[in-house]
Every structure is written in structure tokens, then in C-alpha cells.
Amino acid sequence: MIKLLHTSDWHLGRVLHEKPLLEDQAHVLGQITEILHGDPHDLLVVAGDIYDRSLPPADAVALLSRFLTELRRKSEVTVVMIPGNHDSALRLSYCAEMLSLSGIHIRSEAACAHEPIRLLKDNNTVNIYAIPFLEPGIFDAHREGEDAVKGSHEEALEHLTGIIRSGMDKSAVNICVGHLYTRRGLTSDSERVMVGGAGDVDPALFDDFTYTALGHLHRPQGVSGKVHYSGSPMKYSFSECGDTKGVLSVTIAGEIQDIAAIPLTPLRDMARLRGSFQSLLNDGEFLEYRGHYVEAELTDGGIITNPLVSLRERFPHILSVRQAAPQMKSGERSTAPSISEKGTLEDDYRAFHAHIHGEEASAETMDLFEKIRRERNIP
């Protein structure tokens, strides 16, 4: 029997609405270390996007170093890590040869992905095929004739998995690690999406593997019984407010016996709050979100001056404030404001104001409009 812990998409160094998340990331990585310390696993898989950008900040690099050092103090688990589309494969793999001597394997070269990392457990062989993020056309230089053009992610992966299958020991436990987007996968706002579906991959390409641990999609999900995304260990957009973040613990005895989601507790959770400016400031129902990262949507029709500053007194970690679009009355059609060629600029502004705010401009508003118009010398 083999137990593996599957995680991905750490995005170390991420900034959300100008708020650095390094402290939050250190908090969840510490929990992963404690999980492995308290419940020994044979393998830790980190399926790409270790960093948030190809040139990570120094404190993000230091955090990864601290994590691996502390992990090795508390656990003998074998680690397999690959670069994702956010990572620089070259930078991530710095000192990879030396780290492999400690059982920490960083596989960044596609040309070597068909060579498995081998583990022996209870006289059984476990082969881990670590496939880094593949750029379309990555194998073109090594092919000739009609096979030379491999222009998509799927074609590149099909080429590589074909090589793997040709040398695969079907009697062993064969685990694949990849970073990609599969068809039918559920996305969120925090992923870098490939334009036009160019990154879509058929999950059937992984049918010959015992288990496939994927990264790239931030929502935890199973694409098939043997192909899973662990999701990111914490929330990276307000579209993920309802998600439960964690890691996957997978037990394999010849085939998959169990896949258990282990939740991780965030340093601060995320919440989307909706209401009038005054209700958000005063209503007791919102008090429980004082310690959350907050995105507030205001339902007020009028303009509110500096709402973020005022709301921060109640929600110290508020990151975003936006105003809800005016609601159309029953039977109304949503149309652009009518602008007549013979109308005055004042008429046009009245129509614009009514379209945006759902009500006629007041006398005070029109006085302000005229004042600004005169100051700017607008005819």
C-alpha cells in the first residue's frame, strides 16, 4: 500500500488587491507539514505553480526553502514537484540534483518526463512520471516530416504520454503528475486561462495511470475516478468564497482504495458582502466577517465618497468595494441612454444620469454639472 498527499497551485508571492499573501501562505504550508508529521505518507506531490510568477520575490523563495527544511526535519516523505505555467522551470529547478539526494525531486525538463522516479514500497514498485507544464510545439524540434507540427497542449501531451506508455511497467503502480487544463474542468477567477481553449486536454490520455495528480485549476475536483485536481491550498479570488480548500490524501493498493480531502484552515477566510452602505457599517449580521478578507458590493443608488476608508473601520481586512448595477424594473428593457443629435449636452447628461442611477438628476446634481462644465470651458 502507498499513501500520497496531493497539493498544487501554491502561488507563493501572490498579491490580492495589493495585499501580499505570504503570511497566509506560510500558515497553510505549516499545516501541510503537520499533516505529514502526524500521518506519515510515502509521497508528497506538488503539481505546479509553486510560485506566482516566473521571477518570484525573495521572500517567496525563502518561504519555499523554510517549508522544505522544516518538512525534512519532521518527515521522511519523498517529494515530487513540477513547474506550472506561472513558474520559471529553470529557477525552480535550481539545485535540483542536490535536493534529489534528500528525496526532494524537482522535475522541470519535458525531455526527461518519460523517466520515472521510482519508489519501492512493500516489495512493490511505484513509478512517478512528473510532467512539467508543456508549451505548445515543445517537441517540434525533435520531429520531422508530417509529424513536425504539434501545435497544441493536447498534442504535446499526447506525444509525451505515448512515449511513457511504450515503456510503462503495467504491473507497477504508475502515478502521473501534471499541470494543465482538462476538458470539463471547473475554473475560477484566479487562474490564467488559455485563450480559445488552446490548453484543453482530453483526460482519457491518463487512462493508463493508476492515479493522475493535476494542478492548474484552483477548485478541488475529480475529472474522473483516477484523475483529480487538489485545488489551491487557499482562496485566491472572491469567486472561490464558497470553496473548501485543502489537500488530497490518496491510498493505493494496486488500485485506488481511497481519496480523502483534508481541509486546511486559512489565516483569514474570504467573504463577499452585499448591502447598503449603512447596513454594512451598522447591521449586526455582518459582524462575523470582521476578520475576513472582504469584497463589499454596495446596493445604494447614489455616489458614496470614499466607502473603502469608512468600511475599513469595521472590516480591517476589506480589499475591494464595488457598486451594484441598478436593477431594472419588471418589464423594462436594458438599453443605452438615448442621445439626440438635436439635444443639448445638458439633455444628454440627464439621460445618462437616469440610465446609470435609475432616477432623474436632482437640481443640486445639475448645478454641479454646470459648474464643472464652465470650469472646463465645455461648450
Brief characterization of the structure:
This protein is α/β, with parallel strands linked by helices and 379 residues long. The protein contains 9 helices and 19 strands.
Describe this protein's structure.
The structure is a single chain. This protein is elongated. It is 25% helix and 24% strand. The chain contains 9 helices and 19 strands. The protein is of the alpha/beta class and 379 residues long. The chain has a 6-stranded mixed beta sheet with strand order 6-5-4-1-15-16. The N and C termini lie far apart (81 Å). Strand 7 and strand 8 form a beta hairpin. Helix 1 runs parallel beside helix 2.
The DSSP helix count reads: 9
- N- to C-terminal distance: 81 Å
Instruction: Please count the beta strands (DSSP E, at least 2 residues each).
Output: 19
Structural class: alpha/beta
Rg measurement, Å: 26 Å
Order of helices and strands: EEEHEHEHHEEEHEEEEEEEEEHEHEHH
Give the mean pLDDT. 88
Indicate the topology.
Layout: E1 2-7, E2 15-16, E3 19-20, H1 22-38, E4 43-47, H2 58-74, E5 78-82, H3 89-92, H4 96-100, E6 104-106, E7 117-121, E8 124-130, H5 153-166, E9 173-179, E10 181-182, E11 200-201, E12 211-215, E13 221-222, E14 227-229, E15 246-253, E16 255-263, E17 270-275, H6 277-282, E18 293-298, H7 307-312, E19 318-323, H8 345-357, H9 363-375
Parallel strand pairs: 1-4, 4-5, 5-6, 8-9, 9-12, 10-11, 12-14, 17-18, 18-19
Antiparallel strand pairs: 1-15, 2-3, 7-8, 13-14, 15-16
